[in-house]
Amino acid sequence: MADHILEVNHLKKYFKTNRGMLHAVDDITFRLERGKTLGIVGESGCGKSTTGRCILRLIEPTDGEVIFEGEDLLKLGKRQMRARCSDLQIIFQDPFSSLNPRNTVMETIAEGVRVQKKYRTPAEIEKRVLELMETVGLAERLINSYPHELDGGRRQRIGIARALAVEPKLIICDEPVSALDVSIQAQILNLLKELQRKLGLTYIFISHDLSVVNHISDEIMVMYLGQTVEKAPSAELFANPIHPYTKALLSAIPIPKVDANKERIHLKGEVTSPIDPEDECRFAKRCLYACEKCQKGCPKLKEVSPGHFVACHCFPE
Amino acid sequence: MSEVRENEKTVDDSLVLDIQDLTVHYELEDETVEAVNHISLQLKKKRILGLVGETGAGKTSTALAILNLLPNPPGVIKSGSIRVCGNDMLKLSQKELESIRGSSISMIFQDPMTSLNPVYSVGEQIAESIELHEDCTKAEAWEKAEEMLQLVGIPKERIHEYPHQFSGGMKQRVVIAIALACNPKLLLADEPTTALDVTIQAQVLDMMCDLKTKFDMAMIFITHDLGIVAQICDEVAVMYAGRIIEQGTLREVFNHTKHPYTEGLFNSLPDIENREAELQPIQGMMPDPTKLPEGCAFAPRCPYAKPECINTPQKERSFSETHKVLCSAYDDPTFRIRREEC
């Protein structure tokens, strides 16, 4: 039987706004196998980051279950959750604002090392920090540098080292490479892959860049307005997308080859408001294939082939 | 230094933009940032040039220099000439510049959220530019503004609305409408779609291509996304550390890549069709623009570099009339980069 490190069931997060309830994450369910990577893609505002944060309880979810190694994180008390935190870590998008500008590299990473209580003397801690720096490819001489002295790629490496410091089992990577240049982006992606191989990490990789997600993930979940519209193994999703939104998204990826740019599927209009959405397919207003059926209730995820789930009323027609 | 051509007397009028030997420095108190170093660039009517490079390569500085909009101090144009439709941008008076900017040449900035004025309605902002540059009444300008708005795919009923009432993609359309309001001959677009989602980006790109045909303009499209370049550009110039290290037609640069840096950029991109392919990032970091070497600035990161690369000034090499590369490795006639071999 597959070893599921994480199971998310009916996760919901509603925000109260002046105009009504904003459904940021609306009934997300998925399971994640140990040592694998789940990619979450979608446009801005589709709830992918909120999902990531709800799993860590950085944002308190409205409803649902987050079962990590058999234990529902949402039922834990504050202190128990804190103890659990060393198993789950997050790497943020912006390496410029996610590091404390007043802490050196040493201090930033050592914070995580100290939490663990495995290393006690300053010498032990420093040794461990240097070890971590080497793991993520930071030169030893940078140990006393401040974040502003370093460029984006190096800062992101500090973010990764900080996450690794507590020896986590699952890391949520929230757009870890979007702020970086392509050549540096590739360095970080390779580093993440290598760390996964070496340390047996499990990732949830959140990104809007489909080619990056495709490269790093075993499975991809496509989100639209807080809901999963399609979920499948990466190769399957790219070879055989079913949901009209996934198709449009895939066709919109600019491919860096002459004449490779195929026929684009144009979506009408823009994303509709996530505030008090009506009970209908949320994509219907932009969908090329929308019919009457689509106005009757939210479509549920159906398994169309092993491991491939789609939420669309019109499938298979 | 690359060869400096004497000021050519003949002005080719099919050229919308002619940059010769442009050098831009930012002179700070204790150091000088060499942002753009001796670049030459020509652009013909109705062509789209993709200006590609990573952060700090000098793309935006080049664009600002073309408009003579560099913040001064610290920005200084050290040498070179820039002609836009025959006008020497560096010799014009402030007043003449003002009449050219917005009418024959326009710019779209990266962030649509900050380039609109929040206290004026979008209609007022589009009409403002028309009133300034064209001899017309307020009512006529307003009418034209309505027309522009529809052209970029926004219903004209929304002309009285304010920027905060629009989404990111719509705001960028408004910015494009302002830029195109006076039918410019040359449009500088500085990463106009970077802040947008992929599906919206696809809409905006297609719209820009349509408008380019409609208005007969030339465009410089600044981006770091080679996918976008492949999609819309006719020509490509790749910048690194303030120099154009490779330029040519889209086909030449993409299919017959010559410069190791351009190759490195391609190798860093995940391949959609082949998930298993390992990424080969360029090692190291961009050099410090205050301490550029005499020779090739890419040499410390270049897998083909020889010890002399970093000290010998580079020579420009032409592989065809349009395809030019700045790399000393081609002194050896048998030299080939790996991408070309396979």
Q: Topology of this structure?
A:
The complex is a heterodimer of chains A (317) and B (342).
Chain A: E1 4-17, E2 20-33, E3 37-41, H1 48-56, E4 63-68, E5 71-72, H2 78-84, E6 88-91, H3 105-116, H4 122-135, H5 152-164, E7 170-174, H6 182-199, E8 202-207, H7 210-216, E9 219-224, E10 227-233, H8 234-239, H9 244-251, E11 302-305, E12 308-310
Parallel strand pairs in A: 3-8, 3-9, 6-7, 7-8
Antiparallel strand pairs in A: 1-2, 1-4, 4-5, 9-10, 10-12, 11-12
Helix pairs in contact in A: 3-4, 3-5, 4-5, 5-6
Chain B: E1 15-27, E2 32-44, E3 48-52, H1 59-66, E4 75-84, E5 87-88, H2 94-100, E6 105-108, H3 122-133, H4 138-151, H5 168-180, E7 186-190, H6 198-215, E8 218-223, H7 226-232, E9 235-240, E10 243-249, H8 250-255, H9 260-268, E11 316-318, E12 324-326, H10 338-341
Parallel strand pairs in B: 3-8, 3-9, 6-7, 7-8
Antiparallel strand pairs in B: 1-2, 1-4, 4-5, 9-10, 10-12, 11-12
Question: Could you please describe the fold and organization of this structure?
Answer:
The complex is a heterodimer of chains A (317) and B (342). With 317 residues, chain A is of the alpha/beta class. In chain A, 30% of the residues lie in helices and 24% in strands. Chain A has a single domain (4-101, 167-310), classed as Rossmann fold. In chain A, the strands form two sheets. Chain A has an eight-stranded mixed beta sheet, sandwiched between helices. In chain A, helix 3 (105-116) packs parallel to helix 5 and helix 4 packs across helix 5. The longest helix of chain A has 18 residues, at 182-199. Chain A starts with a strand and ends in a 7-residue tail after the last strand. The mean pLDDT of chain A is 89. Chain B has 342 residues and is of the alpha/beta class. Chain B has two domains: 15-104 and 184-341, Rossmann fold; 117-180, no CATH class. In chain B, strands 6-7-8-3-9-10-12-11 form an eight-stranded mixed beta sheet, sandwiched between helices. In chain B, strands 2-1-4-5 form a four-stranded antiparallel beta sheet, with helices on one face. Chain B is globular and about 65 Å long. Chain B starts with 14 loop residues before the first strand and ends with a helix. Classes of the chains: A alpha/beta (317), B alpha/beta (342). Chain A binds chain B through residues 43-44, 151-154, 181-187, 189-190, 208, 210-212, 214-215, 234-235, 238, 248-249, 251-258, 260-261, 264, 266-267, 270-271, and chain B through 54-55, 167-170, 197-203, 205-206, 224-231, 250-251, 254-255, 264-272, 275, 278-283, 285-286.
